[in-house]
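Homework help board

Subject: predicted structure for assignment chain

Our instructor gave us this sequence and asked us to write out the predicted structure in token form, then describe one feature. I got the tokens but I'm not sure how to describe them. Can anyone check?
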Amino acid sequence: MVSLVGYTNSGKSSLLNALTGSSVPVEDQLFATLDPATRRCTLPGGRELLITDTVGFIQRLPHQLVEAFRSTLELVAESDLLIHLVDVTGVEVDTQIDAVRAVLEEIGAAQIPEVLVGTKVDVATSEHRERFLSGHDGSLVVSSVDGEGIGELTDRVWELLSRQFSELEVIVPFGAEVERLHRVADVLEEEYRFDGVRLRVRLSRGEADRVRRYAV
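My token output:
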């Protein structure tokens, strides 16, 4: 699973909609997203993954709010990858990045691989864009409005997820589970048998845990 994290109003819900074709409400206000929204994203090549929109962070997020949003934040800590969104038009970009990473540290998610993504470049100046990209190695910029950078982002997400993939051999029942593994994993070998389908697959940590009961 991939989670969208970022300072409040950094464009997480808008990006979720752009990546998944969904219609999660987008509002320009503090804590507009209170409950996590998880949607399916189809990557180039037909692979699928789950992306979750999470509550927006703020600087020095009070401990009682961390507790109130505990169930939401636990989803972040269970993610395979974080997409950390930053509004490049903001005046305190680095302060907001540090604030988000401080919360990630508090909830035990600081070790999860991260893609740093600048948002709202459709309304940003060239100075905003260059300052962000030059100040943060490996970062990307996107626009959820006109689609700029979305393809590059999905390619980067798949590249980073693939580095975490593990190889597993399973025998699964005929039908939906076989079809699902073809969508979410790299199928290296496939053999139809009397007792099911034997597959050797490369897949993410979360998916591997889900199908481990079929392992041989």
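Reply (TA_rk): Your tokens look well-formed. For the description, you could write something like this. Strands lie at 2-6, 37-42, 48-53, 81-87, 114-119, 140-141, 166-172, 186-193, 196-203. That's the kind of observation they're looking for.
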